[in-house]
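cron nightly-structures :: item 1 of 1
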Amino acid sequence: MPDWPRGDAPSRVANIPTPAIVVDVAAMERNIQRMARFFASGPCRLRPHFKAHKTPEIARRQLAGGSCTGLTCATVSEAELVAEFCGDVLIANEPVGPGKGSRVAELARRANVTAAVDSVKGLEELDAAALKAGTRIGVLVDVNVGQNRCGVAPGDAAVRLAQQVLSARGTVLRGVMGYEGHVVGIPDRTDRDGRARRAMTDLAATARAIRDAGLPCEVVSAGGTGTYDITGRIEGITEVQAGSYVLMDSDYGRLDVPFEQAFWVLGTVISRPTPTRCVADCGHKATTKDHGHPLVRNVDGAEVTALNDEHATIGVPSDCRLDVGDRIYLRPSHTDPTINLHDVLYAIDGERVVDIWPIAARGYPEHRHG
């Protein structure tokens, strides 16, 4: 959080120092309500992914919106922060490495904590930490449903790992998870639908195989913003881990999902060296380009042509009126890593700054000193 002198925090967008992130609160709230309404009916529920914004104020609003079983986190440090206001936390990742198991075990003293596991070594670390702390850690067996990232193979391999979870003394088998991340961004709806259903068929069949082996499998967790209304209606899936829907980006904006762009990177034009080029102060230290360059809002014919550390170079029509000192809004291509570059979000209503929200979980807080 910036250490503003008393009374000097920006009250208008024009006074926000750039580069910065601004959030249209009304648009964000509409996204929250649209998603909550979808999950208000049917057996599947929503478990929003905190990593998409890393901001407690937004997470609280998602929980208040309803239809949520809890929150999803990507890291142990995110989960530690989320547990301060949410009693049910899923770490949808394998917490392996120095100190992580013990931190998850301590976290289990104050929240219902579940973590993903896809190896015996990872299970053993969690189990030993829980036994030492005198707590119990929930476990979802992570199943590879086609993304080819983490996860054991569907079927027998997942059943064997589930049996080992059940036989451990410090862990509790709660179910399975599988992320169809390889299909969530497919533009063609028919193709995305078919491939998501195939991936979820493997996950649901694995859950049934675990139950047929006499093991508990209450939770079947999957899904993302691009497949929430597909995966969220497939029989056997109990929760969806969508995250980007709350703020959106240009990548998901290409899809047929009913969510609005709710955040932008705000920059200032610092140079207009030629009639067809201007430069703003919001380079790739302010917005990522892993999914492509950001889009320019409300400037016809403007296109980001390059992102350097501090500079966004923008091609513009020769009759464009942008001048040095003007504000410019960029629509990032990827929400999560862009948010991670900033300390705060400026919550806005039109041109008014209504609040400033700390992005409290950005970076890796466990490495901070002082």
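cron nightly-structures :: done
The chain has two domains: 13-20+259-364, 25-247.
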